[in-house]
Amino acid sequence: MEPIKGIRTLIFDADDTLWKNNFYFVEATEAFIAMWVAAGMEESAARQAFLEFEKKAVRERGYGSENFLYILQGLWERLSPRYPAPPQTMEQIIERFKEHRSNGPVLFEGVKETMTELARRYALYVLTKGRYDEQKGKIIRAGIDKLVRDYFIVPEKDITVYRELLASHTWSSEQVCMVGNSPKSDINPALACGMHAVYIPYEHTWHLDHDAVSDPHHPRLRTLKTFRELTGIL
Question: Which Pfam family would be a valid example here (predicted)?
């Protein structure tokens, strides 16, 4: 694979790029849906109810663990009068989900070593979306704050955010590379701004973040299987 040349700045997504995150949401969601199916609800109806409530909650309240718990509680209040799901099962789902927050993020294999090496040649930053306190806490507990020059936490990641970031730091887009797992939030907006992008797919990427890469053959795009491979193209 041809190396990327002329880069001075690397920006990393956080959740599901540096550490496993959405896996825990998927695990809780599947357990939650299974609970309603066991209580007599059609699986398709349970999934549709979850999706509709989730979309509305994200649109009105944003991202993060607290909003996810709000979704579970809200649907419980809506569905439990019709379907006799045991409260103890609901409590177990919530407690299991909360465990991952208290344990803190676990970096993917090779992340720390790779970023340490890249920091010798590039200016490193993190750009992540979600609740400020939650994302900051994960960055610090994972030790990423010690590997980057700064981190940016925004409510949403879109082309406007990328343009503002470039402008506020007077970065030349062709000298900046975005690294992430989400075409919707990381890859497509970065390419649209004239930046380079490295796509590292993750099997548990959040379904609301699913999107196709706008141009899989874009000359400023590279696709890797693992984080460690970054040192081979940068």
Answer: Hydrolase
